[in-house]
Design a protein that fits this description.
The protein is an alpha+beta fold. It has 12 helices and 6 strands. Helix 1 runs parallel beside helix 7, helix 3 runs antiparallel to helix 4 and helix 9 packs antiparallel against helix 10.
Length: 381
């Protein structure tokens, strides 16, 4: 039996929480990180689903003109939104864990195919075959087999995100700050309750509540993120180096990067343009970082990439990827400046992290010296 007052209280409360989260997001500002776009997308879809679900319950069994159409429309939106949040959550967790744009792109392709398959089935369902859900002659909604498959897929996506985080925690260098359970557990409980008791509006309300928990965790996480580039910051570097030292990790590699002629960009075009250049560099580096590495902005125009269980080939491949990204940027940008980076890599010897940083620094400055000898003839940074 549908309890309309309970549904209105639950879904209006959920919508209020989501809107407040949007307000906090606007006040806090945004970076260029892909996960922020995923987070915003999940909030928007959750708000849309809360509205659609409320309408679907209010009009279920209605007799007014067009009721059947709106029953189909609102329930299609809710079902598609369920799977979208599951897919976006997996991608969100993956990028929060690894910070790799290459890995995110690869994963989004196959998860996108899964979503597209179910979405096609929902479109087919609009012709009244009942594979996802059916609407009776008196305009009452009833679940179908695809609806059950969507819930199963959602739970598999939640489980995948948990496994992903647990595997990441075994890594010696990367530190996971994001507890995935604070989102997954409330969502699973709310979905199970609503699935068991039709007419009980706990599903999307639990999603909205879970986002409040996520937002609290993001506040803590933000202290490790550089606001301008969205990469990790010097504080995160110190944490990684401490883990390397305590674990006596061998096979760890690092690359230090520094922008060439960055002072000239600030002097000729102003610091606002210089800030955009730093943001572009952050994106160029992020798109080249493999999944076993993490990129950080440690100061001004200086960056570091740390590799776990790396190899000289991985360093070379990453640096080639960065150079290729720079080449593409310089050929296609509408900005008045051109970018160039000097890079130097080193292997951790299992002893001193200070020596590790020093070795990267020396290699980077050797590359910078060569650059200026070739291009600038002694022009200072």
């Amino acid at each position: 039996m549908i309890n309309i007052p309970e549904i209105l209280v639950a879904n209006c409360g959920g919508a209020a929480m989501v809107i407040l989260l949007f307000v906090f997001r606007v006040r806090a500002g945004k970076t260029l990180r892909a996960d922020e776009a995923l987070y915003d997308g999940m909030l928007i879809v959750t708000l849309l689903a809360l509205a659609a679900e409320t309408v679907s319950f209010l009009i279920d069994g209605g007799r007014f003109p067009g009721c059947r159409f709106f029953v189909y429309l609102t329930n299609t939106v809710c079902t598609a939104a369920t799977l979208f949040v599951g897919v976006a959550w997996c991608l969100f967790v993956d990028y929060r864990t690894y910070g790799s744009a290459k890995r995110l792109k690869r994963k989004s392709l196959w998860l996108g195919l899964v979503f597209a398959l179910f979405f096609v089935l929902l479109i087919v369902n609009l012709f009244g075959n009942g594979i996802a859900f059916s609407v009776s002659a008196d305009n009452r909604y009833a679940r179908g087999p695809v609806n059950t498959a969507v819930i199963a897929a959602l739970f598999l996506l939640f489980i995948e995100s948990i496994v992903n985080v647990r595997l990441a925690r075994r890594r010696r260098i990367l530190k996971v700050f994001f507890p995935v359970y604070c989102f997954v557990v409330p969502c699973m409980i709310g979905t199970i309750l609503q699935g068991r008791f039709y007419g009980l509006a706990t599903g999307w309300f639990s999603v909205a509540t879970a986002f409040v928990f996520v937002n609290l965790q993001l506040q803590s996480y933000s202290s490790f993120v550089d606001e301008m580039t969205g990469l990790f910051n010097r504080k995160y570097l110190n944490s990684c180096l401490d883990r390397i030292y305590r674990s006596k990790a061998r096979g760890a590699y690092g690359v230090m990067l520094d922008a060439n002629n960055f002072k000239r960009i600030n002097d000729e075009y102003g610091h606002l343009v210089g800030d955009r250049a730093i943001q572009e560099i952050g994106g160029i580096i992020a798109r080249a970082v493999p999944e076993n590495a993490v990129a950080m902005r440690i100061s001004g125009d200086e960056f570091i990439i740390l590799f776990e269980d790396g190899a000289p080939d991985a360093l070379e491949e990453t640096q080639r990827g960065i150079r290729e990204n720079i080449r593409r940027f310089n050929e296609t940008t509408g900005e008045p400046y051109r970018l160039s980076l000097s890079m130097g890599g080193a292997e951790y010897d299992g002893k001193s992290t200070e020596g590790f940083l020093s070795a990267m620094d020396k290699a980077m400055y050797a590359a910078k010296k060569e650059y200026y000898q070739t291009h600038e003839k002694g022009d200072a940074k």
